[in-house]
Design brief:
With 159 residues, the chain is an alpha+beta fold. It has helices spanning 11-26, 32-46, 82-90, 142-158, and strands spanning 52-59, 62-70, 76-78, 94-96, 114-122, 125-134. The protein is globular, with a radius of gyration of 15 Å.
Length: 159
Amino acid sequence: MFHSAKYEGTQSEKYDLVKKQLKALIEDEPNQIANLSNASALLNQFLDRINWVGFYLMDGNELVLGPFQGLPACVRIPIGRGVCGTAVQKRKTLRVADVNTFPGHIACDSASQSEIVIPIIKNDSVIGVLDIDSPEKNRFDETDEIHLKEFVEILETYL
């Protein structure tokens, strides 16, 4: 599931290494933009079969594009619209096997076929989401979901 040949082992072992690297990158840095930038770069380096990874951050009652890796993206997403806005509204992770079947999907990149979105919650408020897109249908499985939620929990600790 990961690009680099130097990361061997099970999918879970590889994710454990990525989570350790995230913590090392952000634990001494207070700047949120720097930390989210490095987090998106880290995931982009290690996850394979993805075409976009990044963050949308709450600004008033909508999500606004934050640090990311990939093609230019939609800048503003209303709460309740698309996968990202729905994840915020429901305050839960959404793993969508085929975005074309998701009601109200916002197609920022027509190549995207599947998506996972994890809300970032701090002090009981959603402050943003981690959004990852893939050009393959059904790219993200339960293991991805478990570990990406743990990745976000690390971010929540330091943001």
